[in-house]
């Protein structure tokens, strides 16, 4: 799993709203972390997780399957994902902020498939990690210094952090490392830092 330790300085111009499409902020990392709720697919792709596997994915990352109420709380602050996923107690659904022709059946709210009797059905997962928002966040200031949890001490095992820098289209972000120390692994398969030029962790991969 992802773990990292670094102490960095960021400089960028004053930011404005960014990452919206058709009035919806899609699958935003900072929004997920603000709510403590996030969406997960299997490594093999969409709709590949049984209930037991979805539960294991969330627990492996230090959380648990989100309840209907937690998913709705995230939706109310703008969390919008057009993909059905397991929730607590074997429920399946997904959050819709803005109705669309191809997602949500033309309505907003939690599209609820109810509690599934067949736990071998394969969907995605909606996880809840109450500590997730303590590691990461969204930055819009012209300058910001951020660091891993516990710095200058070691970070915890299985630590996952997302930092989201919001700037206007065409602006540049300058990332400067003041100190960087991760587990020694030439292939970057143990501890690593990844950078994305996008507002999600699905597209815009720059490098590891």
Automatic annotation (TrEMBL):
Subcellular localization, as worded in the UniProt entry:
Cytoplasmic vesicle, Secretory vesicle
Xref: SUPFAM superfamilies: C-type lectin-like (SSF56436), Spermadhesin, CUB domain (SSF49854)
Q: Work out whether the entry's keyword set contains Ribonucleoprotein.
A: no
Q: Which cysteines are joined by disulfide bonds?
A: 58-127, 82-103
Biological process GO annotation list? cell adhesion; negative regulation of inflammatory response
Q: Which residues form the Link domain?
A: 36-129
Location, primary (coarse class) = cytoplasm
**Tell me, what is one Gene Ontology molecular-function annotation carried by this entry?**
hydrolase activity
Keywords, A to Z, come to: Cell adhesion, Cytoplasmic vesicle, Disulfide bond, Hydrolase, Signal
Read off the Pfam families from this record: CUB, Xlink
Q: SMART domains in the record, alphabetically?
A: CUB, LINK
**Known InterPro entries for this protein?**
C-type_lectin-like/link_sf, CTDL_fold, CUB_dom, Link_dom, Sperma_CUB_dom_sf, Spermadhesin-Link_domain
Description of how the protein assembles with itself and partners: Interacts (via Link domain) with inter-alpha-inhibitor (I-alpha-I) component bikunin. Interacts with ITIH2/HC2; this interaction is required for transesterification of the HC to hyaluronan. Interacts (via Link and CUB domains) with ITIH1. Chondroitin sulfate may be required for the stability of the complex. Interacts (via Link domain) with various C-X-C and C-C chemokines including PF4, CXCL8, CXCL11, CXCL12, CCL2, CCL7, CCL19, CCL21, and CCL27; this interaction interferes with chemokine binding to glycosaminoglycans.
Give the protein's recorded name.
Answer: Tumor necrosis factor-inducible gene 6 protein
Query: Which gene carries the instructions for this protein?
Result: Tnfaip6
């Amino acid at each position: 799993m992802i773990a990292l330790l670094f102490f960095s300085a960021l400089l960028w111009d004053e930011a404005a709203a960014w990452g919206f499409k058709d009035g919806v902020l899609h699958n935003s990392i900072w929004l997920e972390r603000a709510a403590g709720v996030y969406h997960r697919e299997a490594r093999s792709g969409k709709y590949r997780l049984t209930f037991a596997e979805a539960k294991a994915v969330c627990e492996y990352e230090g959380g648990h399957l989100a309840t209907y109420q937690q998913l709705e709380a995230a939706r109310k602050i703008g969390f919008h994902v057009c993909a059905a996923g397991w929730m607590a107690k074997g429920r399946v659904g997904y959050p819709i902020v803005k109705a669309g022709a191809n997602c949500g059946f033309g309505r907003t709210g939690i599209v609820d498939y109810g509690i599934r009797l067949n736990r071998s059905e394969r969907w995605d997962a909606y996880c809840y990690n109450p500590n997730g928002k303590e590691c990461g966040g969204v930055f819009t200031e012209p300058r910001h210094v951020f660091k891993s949890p516990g710095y200058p001490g070691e970070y915890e095992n299985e630590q996952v952090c997302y930092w989201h820098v919001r700037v206007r289209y065409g602006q540049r972000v300058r990332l400067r490392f003041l100190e960087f120390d991760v587990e020694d692994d030439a292939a970057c398969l143990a501890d690593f830092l990844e950078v994305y030029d996008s507002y999600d962790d699905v597209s815009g991969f720059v490098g590891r």
